Amino acid sequence: MPPEQPFIAKWLESIDYGTSDPASQRPTYSSRKRRRQTTTTTTKTTATTTILPSPNLTTNPSLSPSDRDCHDDRDRDHKHNVDCGYGPAMSHTPTKRQRRDFDTDPDDYRAADVDATPRPTRIELGGRKTPSLASDNDTASWASGRAASEAASGSQASRASSPRKQLARMQLLEDGFDCTNFRAVNLPPSLVEVVKNLQSLARGQGVIPASHRDIFVTNEADRTFIDERWFSPTAESSMTYPQVLAVIAKAGVCERKMHDEASWNVEVHHPLLAAVVRPGGTPSLVDVIYCPTAKIAAAYSPRNAPSRMVDFCLTINPDHIDPSGADIVAIESRLRIGDHVNHTQHEALRRTPIAVSIETKRSMIDGDTAQLQMGVWQSSQLRMLAKAAEAMTPTVVDQSVALDATGTAVKAATCAIPMATVAADARPKTTPSVAEWLPGIIVQGHEWNFVVTCRSGLRDNRPALLSSIPMGRTQEPLDVYCLLAAIRYLCRWAEETYWPIFRAQILGLS
Questions:
Q1: Number of H helices, E strands in the chain
Q2: Among residues 387, 383, 398, 178, which one has the least CA distance to residue 301?
Q3: Does 111 share its domain with 202?
Q4: Both 99 and 170 in a single domain?
Q5: Is residue 426 part of a domain?
Q6: Are residues 235 and 371 in the same domain?
Q7: C-alpha dist (Å) from residue 432 to 170, 317, 437
Q8: Does residue 157 fall inside a structural domain?
Q9: Region (Disordered): which ranges (predicted)?
């Protein structure tokens, strides 16, 4: 046995702890924060400090005489400092670092490491804790938790990847979409007509009511060129000229003071949309719904892709016309059997078919993000409409005649043949498919642009986001009139073209 072990054993036996229960001397803390642990116990009137006695160095045979002299000098200096009030009484025995027992009560911090370097607290990021560097165990635990989380959500795209990378990734997915322009694909005839009309309105032809001509010319003649083709007696008036100027002023404030997207939506975008779809505050068949939290249903969302949302939707609201009509009955019937009229289960959109989707961003930023959101949103809507229309597709009944063994003509077994398998020239003439293309609007600050998601894209039966055709701006009065006319045209298209097709192909109503 080494000579120092009997000495240590005798020293431990000579220690007077003052109580038979050392745990009773431990301080308790009500706070969950780490605090520096001491062996000091405090009462209302007195405070006592328990100090472990130093070993008797003179009896330790393992120390040389020079080592003992050094220890004696240190003890003498320390006692002098305490007596003079220069510092607290301290034990020569260093405090043993105690390991936290995570299997015990998490609120019990009595065994905390008192000599550990203070560390910043953990910060919640996206529902996951970042490592606080408090210990290797904490870091390893966090790393293993992160690996498990990533393994569980491996089907989702990383939120840290840029929108441009996510757009490129969507072009590789089987149920993704492509991005291109209107001239890169063969447009359906029904879409060509819409594009031509919007281009005409963007040039200002007949967008200002003739009744606004005098006030417009009086205020704008010295600022801009006046073209008489802008004025038309048949042009509708959604806003007065002073209201147009008020929208321009609000948009200028949002840009100058660098307002966020929500402020643009409240101050500029929603008033413009509401002025068209609710003339005089009266609801109509087409309405606008603010839906920035509407998520795509999992059944229609692209696999291995993040869910995306838009800000506004122009919807069909048949209950504004006839709350107890056949349209409402058909919609409620679909909902009762678990079907949908939209690709989202958002409560505000469950009973109102979406005709036009609108995504807004601040001025001159996030163009790639807007395209990504619109592409994912509308490609999911096309997928839902295609499935719903396929379920409603009529069948051709084959009642051909066959001969039995005796040569007698008998009626063959009746079988239903899906319309998709019938030759194109043998099919009945029908209206365009509801899932052929969907209109959308991407707004970036002042700029409003018309986009389309259609299936006649670069690859067969694969959605493609086509962009873009200018609709108007909120910087000049003429541009605001152009914008109002374009929105009004899309509302008319939704009411007169899209809604009848939707009723027939999705709701099964003639």
A1: 13, 17
A2: 383
A3: no
A4: no
A5: no
A6: yes
A7: 27, 22, 10
A8: no
A9: 13-166
Residue 142 lies in a domain: no
In a domain, 155, yes or no: no
How far does Cα 260 stand from its chain's mean position? 16
Domain co-membership, 200 together with 91: no
Q: Which of 92, 116, 140 is the last residue of a domain?
A: 116
Residue with tokens 């055709």: 469
- Greatest C-alpha distance within the chain: 129
Helix, strand, coil distribution of the chain in percent, nearest 5: 40, 15, 45
ω before 468 within 30° of 0 (cis)? Answer: yes
Domain of residue 97, residue span: 1-17+36-116
Walk along the chain (510 residues) and give the pLDDT tens digit of each residue.
566 677 788 778 777 665 555 555 555 555 444 444 444 444 444 444 455 555 555 555 555 555 555 555 555 555 555 555 555 554 455 555 555 444 444 444 334 444 445 555 544 444 444 444 344 444 444 444 444 443 444 444 445 578 888 888 888 888 888 889 998 888 999 999 999 999 999 999 999 999 999 999 999 988 889 999 999 999 988 899 999 999 999 999 999 999 999 999 999 999 999 999 998 888 889 999 999 999 999 888 888 777 789 999 999 998 876 776 788 888 888 887 677 889 998 999 988 999 999 999 987 777 888 988 999 999 999 999 988 888 876 543 344 444 445 544 444 443 333 433 333 343 344 567 888 999 999 999 999 999 999 987 667 778 899 988 999 999 999 999 999 999 999 999 999 999 999 999 998 887
Its pTM stands at 0.64
Q: Which residues, 6+ apart, have CB-to-CB distance to 293 below 8 Å? A: 309, 346
Q: Same domain for 52 and 196?
A: no
Q: Domain count for the chain, please give it.
A: 2
210 and 96 housed in the same domain:
no
